[in-house]
Design brief:
Rossmann fold
Length: 346
């Protein structure tokens, strides 16, 4: 576990621990013998409930960051005394952001600032790792590097650009000397247990398990499909690097091996495993400001961390299908621990 030696056996706090990434990170961190704590607003469906993630935690705190004062958040974080914080709590859906722009900005931008303030006022914390998105770049149709200009074209990406601006302002004005701040830009992460609305894999799973209508809006859109454990491995390697080097950093995480496949290909591979029908929907969704191809450059992560996505899309789809079929009948967490162990042993 040399690549994670600055994380092993640490006290770790995850915001958004009941979500998709937070749930899988919980399994990863328990494999690293960490003591983990969580802050979320609600108990989410998906991996959290299907695998009893709650049992992995030393303590859980259910707080709505939009309604919680900074003082209350500072008190909670100091009660935990974590050494590392992963800030995953977010409103992560483009369509929801259009319907609820104020709430999205409050959650993603002001919420990030609140968490930074709380962490800054807890001396036990040496590292905070913040998830933003690959959708923050001004020119989204090129292979952007971390130094490229940021701009949001719809409210979700705008809220994440605002969060990044707040992070930079915080670093320039308030950040204490013995705290490292890491920003990770990643997107289109897929795996078992995701139940966020308006996501392609969630919709396919709901169709397979619950026979719900499957409506697809952009068959030809290409995304950097990234296996959840590949993505989290990048988060952990970058976190370990920042602790080791005692520095702030920004990293892109892009799945180079999977970034040439469109939505139609994903559908075809799921259909190889389970026959289903879908409808191509061309209504109000066409108004969403989404690029046809979204690819970012993760050369920096490859050079500094030795990170690159390893799991190919066909295998990811099989892993998702098997995970979901298993958990449609079994609600224990052995299966997910085994998936993490297999990944680490590759």
């Amino acid at each position: 576990m040399k690549n994670y030696d600055n994380i092993l056996s640490k006290k770790v706090l995850i915001t958004g621990h009941t979500g998709f990434k937070g749930g899988w990170l919980s399994f990863f961190l328990k494999n690293l013998d960490c003591k983990i704590y969580g802050i979320s607003d609600i108990e989410n469906d998906g991996i959290y409930k299907l695998t009893n993630v709650s049992s992995l935690y030393e303590s859980e705190f259910f707080l709505d960051l939009n309604k919680t004062s900074v003082d209350e958040l500072i008190e909670t974080v100091n009660k935990i005394e974590p050494e590392i914080v992963f800030h995953f709590a977010a409103q992560s859906l483009v369509k929801t952001a259009i319907k609820k722009p104020y709430e999205t900005i409050e959650t993603n931008a002001i919420g990030t600032l609140k968490v930074l303030d709380a962490v800054n006022n807890c001396n036990s914390v040496e590292q905070i790792t913040i998830a933003t998105t690959d959708k923050v770049y001004k020119t989204p149709n090129i292979q952007n590097q971390e130094i490229d200009e940021l701009l949001g074209y719809e409210f979700y990406s705008a809220s994440k650009v605002a969060a990044e601006n707040f992070i930079k302002a915080f670093q320039n004005n308030f950040q204490r000397e013995n705290l490292n701040i890491l920003t990770v830009r990643s997107g289109n992460v897929i795996g078992g247990g995701d139940r966020a609305a308006d996501r392609i894999v969630t919709d396919i799973v709901n169709n397979i398990l619950k026979e719900k209508d499957l409506k697809i809006r952009n068959l030809k859109h290409i995304r950097p499909w990234t296996y959840i454990l590949d993505s989290l491995n990048g988060y952990l390697l970058a976190t370990n690097y920042c602790i080791e080097k005692s520095k702030n950093e920004v990293f892109n995480l892009n799945s180079e091996i999977n970034n040439q496949f469109d939505v139609e290909y994903v559908l075809s591979k799921f259909k190889d495993l389970h026959e289903f029908d879908f409808i191509v929907k061309n209504s109000e969704e066409e108004k969403l400001k989404e690029v046809t191809t979204l690819i970012i450059d993760s050369t920096k992560a490859k050079n500094l961390l030795g990170w690159e996505a390893k799991v190919e899309l066909d295998e990811i789809i099989k892993l998702i299908y098997d995970w979901e079929i298993h958990h449609s009948k079994n609600k224990h967490n052995d299966y997910s621990f085994e998936e993490v162990e297999r990944f680490l042993n590759k």
